[in-house]
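User: Fold this; C-alpha cells only.

Assistant: Input:
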Amino acid sequence: MPSTYVEALRRAGALPLLLTCPDDDPREALALVDGLLLMGGGDVEPSRYGTAPGHTGLYGVEPDRDAFEIALLHAAQRGRVPTLAICRGIQVVNVAFGGTLHPHLPDVEGAGVHGEPLSGDPIPHEVKLAAGSRIAEAMGADVVTGSSHHHQGLDVLGEGLTATGWTEDGLVEAVELEGGWMLGVQWHPEETAAADPVQQGLFEALARQARRS
C-alpha cells in the first residue's frame, strides 16, 4: 500500500485501517470504519464485465481482491458508508454495478495518452468536472489536473452511476453513485495531494462525510 494514500488520509484527520482479503467478511469489516477508500492496483478480471481474458496489456489480476472489493461496495451502498474509489477503484465501482471497461485504451480509436500503469511515469492531464457535482464541490474546482497512469477506462456505466468528469478525449474519469456519498476518480489524487489542495480536497471531503456518518 503506497504511503501517499496513508499520508493524504492523515492530513485529512482520518485514521487509516487496512482491510485484507479474502479472510475478512465485508460486512464485519465495514462495521469497524466510518468511511471506505478503494486504492489503485491491477486489472479487474475481464470475465466480470463480459470480456475474454488475454487482451493486450492485462496485468495484476487478483480475483479474490475483485470479489472482496465488489462485496465491500455493495455493503457500503446499503449502509451508506462514504466511499472514495481511486484509479482501479473507479473501475471496480463500475463493474460492481454492472458496467463495463475498455480493456486497453491504446486500442480505442480517438483515445488520448493516459500513461502506463507499470512505467512509473504519470501523465498529467486536465479533467473537466460537472458543475454542481459532489466531486466538484469536494475539490472546489470545475477543471482539475490529475496524475494519470492507467491503460484501462470506463466504457458503459453501471446502474445508478452518473459521469461527472471527463478528459479532453471524452473518457469518463469521475463518477458518482446516486444516493449516499460514493465517488470514483480515474486519476491518482494521492500522488499530488501533498502539494495540491485541490487534490487533497477529495480526502478532506471523505473525512468530513465519515465524521458525519
